[in-house]
Amino acid sequence: MGKEGELKKSEYGDIFLLFIRLSGWIVGPIIIAVLVGIWLDNRYETSPWLLLTTVGISFFVSMVGLVKETLKEYKNIESSLIEKKGSTKLDNKEPSEEEGK
Prior knowledge:
Layout: H1 9-44, H2 49-91, H3 97-100
């Protein structure tokens, strides 16, 4: 299990949570938009225009949410890689020329 390419059990949980969060940004706004759109179309007898409008708005909301969530996760990954890289440099520090003399 000491290989670099293998994932720890906790990393699988993090990946699964990321999948759930991103899926929620796709599915959640669409379901809400369809329900609200159908209700508005029935109330104002404008079928299918308000449904299409709410679905269009939900697409925009989904894209904004996905981009925000992805950028946040990208920054987390980047900072953890920098942290790992910094700790391995300290662990594998080679003696300088001055220390060898």
